[in-house]
From TrEMBL:
RCC repeats (start-end): 177-228, 229-318, 319-372
One record GO biological process: chromatin organization
The protein, known as: RCC1 domain-containing protein 1
Domain of life: Eukaryota
Keywords assigned by UniProt, alphabetized: Chromatin regulator, Chromosome, Hydroxylation, Repeat
Gene3D superfamilies: Regulator of chromosome condensation 1/beta-lactamase-inhibitor protein II
Originating gene: RCCD1
Amino acid sequence: MAEEPPGTWFGFGFCGFGQVPGSGRGRQVHSPEPLQAGVDIRRVTAGWSYTAFVTRGGRLELSGSASGAAGGCRDAWASEGLLVVLHARPGSGALLQAWAPGSALRGEPLWTQNVVLEAQGEDDPGGEAQAGRLPLLPCARAYVSPRPPFYRPLAPELRVRQLKLGAEHALLLDAAGQVFSWGGGRHGQLGHGTLEAELEPRPLEALQGLAMAEVAAGGWHSVCVSETGDIYIWGWNESGQLALPTRSLAEDGETAAKEATGLNADGSQAKRMARAEDGAPAPFIAVQPFPALLDLPLGSDAIKASCGSRHTAVVTRTGDLYTWGWGKYGQLGHGDTSSWDRPRRVEYFVDKQLQVKAITCGPWNTYVYAVEKGKS
């Protein structure tokens, strides 16, 4: 099998702390810009005020409010409260260290633990999900939380494939393609049809019998991609991050009169506002507590998804990138600061004849790995 040629990482969105792709002179980048040393980067992970990069050679570099570098890094995970670094060791062992971002890589870490690595192939820059990708630990029996206790064990019967953390909730994908969620649920982000919290991983009954391939957790919303390329999305829709009609965006461009609130048949909270033009009510979804099936334009199949605080990004099987939700800092990549409550293709990669392979969202920014079309 021919080796895939190296691609390049791009970034766009909030960079108010000087994190790439910004230069420190501005607070935002509205269109994708290639990262310096983007060809050499293997993984990108971002908090609100800083970004961490892991190179192919195992070097960790920080950019933004946290700075510094270290070698011998196998993986890293950035959040605003914690930077977690997995250092390679000879043999099958590794050292896990957790730092407060402001003092990252200097002095004593907040927490250290030796872990055993399971035999597995090296993950490519495209970011294929593998058991052990942080915040899931290599043993796939525990994960790292940005709040104490940092080490959180998982039930032995859970055969974990992927784990993602939102602001107040967690999503887990098991080996059979079943999705579990737990944590805070006040915005419907757990997908169980209520706004109640769950202390332990609970399977999503609405997705029973549907094999999922990918999960993504936003600040207060959730996304999963099925093995067949379908997208299911639920949680908070304040900025259109579910690609469902949202009142805040409608009011920006329409004059509305009367308002009434109610509950849809599927349990979602709907706000119906009469349009001044013809009086016909339009449903606005504030909270979607059940998974909703989302169709991309042109019937495109999804293969990857990532979520920011209030925006969503999806990669299709053909290598197109679609984004939607909150766009105040250019994190949607459309060349402006507009927010969208429907999927919109990022034309930059189409115009440059680039095929998107991976996507990772920070809270207010987005990072993309792409290769030249025809060379993948």
